[in-house]
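Risk register update: the risk of archive-format incompatibility is retired. Evidence:
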Amino acid sequence: MRDLAIGAHRIFKISWRRVVLLLCLALLIATAILLGMPDHVHGDTPTIFRHRIYDIAIHNDGSVAVIEHWNIHIGSASLAQAALWIPLARIAGIDIGPVDGASDGTQQVSRTRDRAGNDVAVVTWGFPQTQDADLAFDIPYVLHDAVGRGASLAWFDWHYLLGATPAAIATDATVRLSVPPNGQNNTQIQTIMSNGSATVTNDNGAITIAAPAAPANADVDAMVTFPVGAMDAAYHPPAWQRSELPPTLPTVAGGTAPTTSFVRGVGATTQSGDANTQRSDASANGMPSFLWSLFFITGGLVIVSLAVAAMARTMRRATAPAPAPVTHTLETARKGEQ
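Archived output:
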């Protein structure tokens, strides 16, 4: 900044202190202008889930097939990676299929623990650097021994809308559940949403849970129950999946059951650490447009201020009265010497 001030002083003959003052004033004005603008004016648009939809089929062998459909609008901060982490409590294992929409060779599956110490599977995948555009992904996985069993009822308790990177609100968050055929006529559903509200419809065992405008990583705890006779007689879940009655909501997403025995998937690796570090940092992919706008507005204000100051100095010189002429003759000089 001092070099800029010195350069301006040499060009416009302005005190470098005044230049520094102009820079500070321009920065304050630019910040005030940008903060007063709505997002669509200065170009910052958020990343959102236009749709985050679960299609879930509960099978009578205790497995649960899940496909998550993501339709994401990438905002002004460019992204090139996404991730999903899945809690591993209350299941015996998980198989994760290839993510539809991921760039070839970018998918990785790892196992780690989140900050609360819960065992989680983390799926990451890449895609071309994207900004201000829509992307769609389908993430399939199968949960094993995920159905609880009691004396008269079977149940599937799961937490939805967690574990997404980028973390963003969902304008359409929907869970579509189907139970085994023999349990469709007597199906019950309970839901608890940590932040917001969800509506439930039950059409003969075809269950829909809708949570419009769901906050980022909102926790929807939902449990569906149906007659135990809908399960295969050969299905004998682990001891921690058996009880006389289903659990009472809300349950803990991480759970207290023994950890999952296996995590399988495309690009599977073993990894320990904090799952939250898997989140991509959008701001690391380039300077946000807000800062670019601030830079250009500040620079423009400084240039205009310097130009105005130079013009004012020129005008002052042009309008200043001419000094009285000074005559200094040889005779006067000699008198002065005497």
